[in-house]
Amino acid sequence: MKNNISSVQTQNEIFQAQQSVEHVQNAVSQALSHPNQQLIDQAYHSIEKAEHALKQASNFDNQDAVQLVRSELEQQKQALQKLPNQD
Hints:
Layout: H1 2-33, H2 37-56, H3 63-81
Helix pairs in contact: 1-2, 1-3, 2-3
């Protein structure tokens, strides 16, 4: 039973990481559509949260799933870096 609970917790962690990346996608989309410092900052904050969620999910048995989520996050980071510096 303990193994089942652990498995569910780990699956929940990858699900949370996936949801975090979806939030990043939304935030980056907003920042790209309406580039202002507040939206860009929100996108970077979402990226930080997603990176943390990915660290939590790093023990997930299906490393392909983790890598897919990580790849999606990297794509969003690259898209955000295309914006001109707003400082």
